[in-house]
Design brief:
By secondary structure, the chain is of the alpha+beta class. The protein has 18 helices and 23 strands. This is histidine kinase.
Length: 591
């Protein structure tokens, strides 16, 4: 009965049972060898065990069997064994020396189990860990011992593969992160989940970023083991840092260029603004200022431009380009000129779902372009003035000479006519002089002057003309005004131009008030009249060459005056209210 049981076990056991003689030949092989390796047992009896083992495993297997024969328990050991078809399978072996009365030592009993599938899974896991840069670990809390996978050693840069202690692990944690890692380990002892990012310093000095996490295994109420994974996230951190730097650079570039980006979710009618768009609108970044497109247009678009913006949006939702300029109202009440470019995204049904794009503050750009155009006008006017002045001056001199001679002989009304001719010729000469100054200003010599003396001389010169036009001039100047560096004749020309314009602005009479103050280390003069004032649309053009509001004006006086003040490092501003009058403010720096 017993032999039948042994026979049944022998026929059905999945492992291979084998006995090796002292000379290394198979003495016995169980029938299961046929299912696992394709050999009949009788084919292997008497053959050498070494002929079936993979060449790379022969030395390892020989050492293991020798130790077993020497009476040592080597536990489980693995090796590759050749199948009948030539491929190798992995087997896990456990061996023991057989002692008998007839044979003294040497014979070995072994049990081999096919672990090929398990080995393949382990290899796949190793490769998966290597590809994903993820290692696995296990920490025996009671023994304070760590077990690492091969990838863990690679991540830490260890090539010795010796057992890892907690102290050795902590020694390679970045000093700035060590306390945080220790704290995370201590939390594990209280049952918290282990999850922490830290930096690792390899033996070579290379710095790596890792993320570790683990789960706890309890033994009763006590924590027995913590196992988990550790992933090398260095490349991710570097990409993250590069992305953060790129975003910061983009924000800086957008801030410098006054360029922001926006996104309108059409389906939900919700708008997103970048920080620069908030700055353009005069709002703190991130403040919820608008919720829909209609609200945005009503709050932040100039009333005169709203219809244009709405029309452009409607066209963009139908596929047209979205590219426009309009005036945007800031939170502080100021208007800025912006350039907006957008693109519409459509779903598979052709429905518009998003409109996104950029917005740029081009106020300064347009102002600069306007200044360039004005400068170009001034340059052309100067070139034209030089040509005209030289062409007119020579015949004008001849005409003035002959008029002077003929006027001496004239009698009665003829003398009056010659007087008018001389007056008009003088007017032409004055215009020519202004043109020449515009084309090429005369060489100036700056000297220290008292602005009150210069202004007194001008008032003496124009006093009679003001009286004839029923205009009174009052000048209240501070007695302690500082001296200024100037060319007196040029400043006289500026003051004459300002006062004459004020006189002509009050055909029915009035008063011109002149006052002074000391500001920012300089002298500030204000000339105020009681004329009809200048409309805003005309005030914006005052100072452009040949632009004038007077029927017989040349349009050069204000421009020449501004150029003189600018040459003195000063400023000249004109403000006016229709029906109340005009004020001209001139600032000149002190010595």
């Amino acid at each position: 009965m017993t032999s039948d049981v042994y026979g049944l076990i022998e026929q059905n056991i999945q492992d291979v049972i084998w006995i090796q003689t002292t000379d290394g030949a198979f003495e016995y092989v169980s029938p299961s060898v046929y299912h696992l390796l394709g050999y009949q047992p009788f084919e292997l009896i008497g053959t050498s065990i070494w002929k079936m083992v993979h060449p790379q495993d022969i030395e390892y297997l020989d050492d293991a069997i020798s130790e077993v024969q020497g009476g040592k328990d080597v536990g489980l050991f693995t090796c590759r064994v050749r199948h009948r078809n030539g491929r190798y399978l992995w087997f896990e072996n456990r061996c023991k020396v057989i002692h008998s009365d007839t044979v003294r030592g040497g014979r070995v009993l072994g049990v081999a189990r096919d672990i090929t599938d398990r080995k393949r899974m382990e290899d796949r896991l190793v490769w998966a860990e290597r590809i994903a840069h993820v290692g696995s670990w296990e920490w025996d809390v009671l023994e304070s011992a760590l077990s690492w996978s091969d990838e863990m050693y690679r991540i830490f840069g260890f090539d010795d593969y010796v057992p890892i202690s907690v102290s050795r692990f902590l020694a390679h944690v970045h000093p700035s992160d060590r306390s945080r890692v220790i704290e995370s380990i201590q939390h594990v002892n209280t049952g918290d989940r282990y999850s922490v990012d830290f930096r690792v310093i390899r033996p070579s000095g290379e710095l790596r970023y890792v993320h570790a996490q683990g789960e706890i295994v309890y033994e009763g109420q006590a924590i027995r083991t913590v196992f988990g994974s550790l992933q090398d996230i260095t490349e991710y951190k570097r990409i993250e840092e590069a992305l953060r730097t790129s975003k910061d650079n983009l924000k800086l570039a957008q801030k410098i260029a006054h360029l922001g980006h926006w996104d309108w979710d059409i389906v939900n009618d919700d708008m997103y603004w970048s920080d620069e768009v908030y700055r353009l609108a005069g709002l703190p970044p991130g403040e919820r200022a608008i919720g829909s497109l209609a609200e945005f247009v009503d709050v932040f678009v100039h009333p005169e431009d709203r219809a244009y913006v709405n029309q452009s949006v409607t066209a963009a939702l139908c596929g047209s380009p979205y590219d426009l300029e309009y005036r945007a109202l800031r939170a502080d009440g100021l208007y800025r000129l912006v350039h907006v470019i957008g693109e519409t995204a459509f779903n598979s049904d052709g429905e518009a779902i998003r409109l996104f794009g950029t917005v740029q503050d081009i106020t300064v750009q347009r102002q600069t372009e306007e200044l360039l155009r004005t400068s170009e006008k001034l340059s052309v006017a100067g070139q034209l003035a030089a040509g005209i002045a030289h062409e007119i001056r020579n015949p004008l001199t001849v005409l003035k000479g002959f008029v002077q001679i003929l006027s001496c002989k004239a009698q009665g009304k003829d003398k009056q006519y010659f007087g008018l001719m001389k007056s008009e010729l003088s007017r032409i000469e004055a215009i020519v002089s202004e043109l020449l100054f515009l084309a090429k200003p005369q060489c100036t010599t700056f000297q220290r002057q008292d602005i009150r003396v210069i202004l007194d001389e001008v008032l003496t010169l124009l006093g009679s003309e003001a009286t004839m036009n029923c205009i009174s001039i009052s000048a209240l100047l501070d007695s302690d005004l500082p001296l200024i560096n100037c060319e007196a004749n040029q400043l006289k020309q500026v003051f004459i131009n300002i006062i004459k314009n004020a006189i002509e602005a009050m055909p029915d009479g009035g008063q011109i008030s002149i006052s002074s103050t000391i500001q920012n280390g300089g002298v500030c003069l204000r000339f105020t009249d009681e004329g009809e004032g200048i409309p805003p649309q005309s005030l914006a053009k005052i100072g452009e060459p040949f632009y004038t509001t007077k029927p017989d004006g040349t349009g050069l006086g204000v421009m020449v005056s501004q150029k003189i003040i600018l040459a003195h490092n000063g400023t000249m501003n004109i403000s006016s209210l229709v029906g109340q009058g005009t004020t001209v403010t001139v600032f000149l720096p002190a010595v």
